[in-house]
Amino acid sequence: MVLEATMICIDNSEWMRNGDYSPTRFQAQADAVNLICGAKTQSNPENTVGVLTMAGKGVRVLVTPTSDLGKILACMHGLEIGGEMNLAAGIQVAQLALKHRQNKKQQQRIIVFAGGPVKYDKKVLEMIGKKLKKNSVALDVVNFGEEDEEKTEKLEALVAAVNNNDSSHIVHVPAGSNALSDVLLSTPIFTGDGEGGSGFAAAAAAAAAGGVSGFDFGVDPNLDPELALALRVSMEEERARQEAAAKKAADDSSKQDKEGESTSQDATMSENAATSASESENKKDDLMDDENALLQQALAMSMDDPAATVTTRDTDMSEAAADDQDLALALQLSVQEGGKDQSGETDMGKLLSDQSFMSSVLASLPGVDPNDPSVKDLLASMQNQPEVSPKKDEDKPKEEDK
Amino acid sequence: MACLHDHSCEDHDCSSDWSLYKHIDIPKVSALNEAVPGSVKAVFKAWEQRLSSSEGLLESNEGDPELIVYIPFTSDVKIKSISIVGGADGTSPNKMRAFINREGIDFSDAQSMQAVQEWDLAENLQGVLEYQTRYSRFQGVGNLTLHFPDSYGGDTSRIQYIGLKGEATQLKRDVVATIVYELMPNPSDHKTKSESGGGMSHVE
Question: What GO CC annotations are associated with the protein (chain A) (predicted)?
Fold first, then answer.
């Protein structure tokens, strides 16, 4: 809950077009910036955040430190990529912007996203670092994008020069399947100098990890009741997952029999722990639930199953009700996409893999028509958009079902 | 501008003179370019403890003897003189510049702004030197900022004690927080003593 004024320096140089961070470096950076802004403003309502770009035609301040999150998010739109990142000028302008903050009681912090190469000398950067330290400005550096030993060395030297009592940090994010924002969630940049994390960071980190955070399910009813619900669900899932693992092995052989029950799923779900049919029914029923995550998990579960059972599942499907064609299609789609996207999936998706949990959730739901084709289509498309808010998806099938 | 303390302290109580430290808002004291964050609070103490470094001293970062000390007061004060005890081996500051009632002064501001008063300091390890202020300029001081640009040749600057002599008023220089304007005066809000029955005269 430190009272802080933060300036975020964005790199919008040509090097940000690269797609080694999905979808592009620039987009990953923008997501991370949005997350940081949210975390800062939530941890203390009087915190202010400002944004500036370091490349393009020159260093440009997009928004001066403000506590209005909407303004910050709006200014991130329509940013153009081009030019070369000017680290020294960017930091100096950020320092100037912080100097003229309205509330002098706020601590000063600069967060730099360094994607492109750094053309300044180590000496110059160290001088800048010393000046920041002298004026008690903290600096966080996110080293991503171009990987260069020299660049890493320079940035490390810069942060070492600024660091006063562990208030400044540097994070190296290599390219890979993890989203930039997910990696940052667990770093001190979010958790704020080891205070134990703001509620936002803790809750978000818990959601990403699919497990229990430092708090009891993040911040339960205070900040986000829906998120709390989702987290509680994931806890149950974790427990149930253990049983499901053992059950699954046994149930695989009896898949054929369980297919026949697909029409009477609503009442008897709890018994069919590991059937692919119940899994798919669960997927649809889960749309009624608040947890989009559960859905994703079911789809993921169908992906997790060994490839051999995919065909059996498909054939099993055809034995059941008429629209199982769509069901099979949905499953196939989800399996294919799952193979591609699995690494990119958030861990919330893995929650859905737990079939026993799915069944228990299903048992508690009112009657849902699982054979609605629109519901199934939605299912298939959901695999592509795990980020789509669950409410929107649920509202649509709810209306269609009724 | 400095006077020597060449009498024994039994005649008059020196510590009561240097008691302005009691009116300093210690938690809000801050310094720029200090090596250990928060060490600046240790330099404001009673006159008798001015030479003891049991609670630590204020030291600047390696290789940079510049220091800025921001001192807010709990009420407005009038400062008559200032005493500084520095460190040995050339780590005493050799110059002092004062600014009053300005918050958030950093090094670039301090270097460019005109100070209210500047002094050349001597190495004052025993704490017997005091530097008088132009009293008329130091009336109604809500906060004081001291800028020490350089030291006597040392790599860092060390300050062991900062003493302030003067008077404290009971006033507090503050931003007016709430003002209620009356668009239409309501007489019942402004009962005089006689109307509310508290007065001595009572006419029947």
Answer: cytosol; nucleus; proteasome regulatory particle, base subcomplex
- Residue B54's φ and ψ, nearest 5 degrees, are -70, -30
Q: At what angle do helices A199-209 and A225-253 cross, to 10 degrees?
A: 10
CB A38: neighbour CB atoms within 10 A?
18
As for the ipTM of the complex, it is: 0.73
pLDDT the model gives residue A198 = 47
Yes or no, beta carbons of B32 and A136 under 8 Å apart: yes
Torsion over CA: A332, A334, A337, A342 (sign)? negative
Here the tokens at position A127 are 């001088």
B27 inside 8 A of chain A by CB: no
A113 touches A32 (CB < 8 A):
yes
The Cα A301–Cα A269 span in angstroms is 16
Is the CB of A385 inside 8 Å of chain B's CB atoms?
A: no
Of A104, A134, A164, the CB nearest to B104: A104
A379-388, pLDDT tens digit by residue?
A: 566 555 544 4
Local structure of A293: helix, strand or coil: helix
Number of residues that make up chain B? 204
Q: Work out the number of other CB atoms within 10 angstroms of the CB of residue B169.
A: 15
Give dist(CA A282, CA B172) in Å, integer. Answer: 68
> CA-CA-CA-CA torsion for A117, A122, A125, A130, nearest 10 degrees?
150
- Say if residues A380 and A334 touch (Cβ distance below 8 Å): yes
0.95 exceeded by the pTM?
no
Q: How far apart are CA A44 and CA B71, in angstroms?
A: 26
pLDDT digits (tens, 9 = 90+) for A253-295: 665 544 444 444 444 444 444 344 444 444 444 445 556 666 6
The reply to whether A99 touches chain B by the CB within 8 Å rule is yes
How many helices (H) and strands (E) in chain A?
Answer: 19, 6
Helix/strand/coil percentages in chain A, nearest 5 = 60, 10, 30
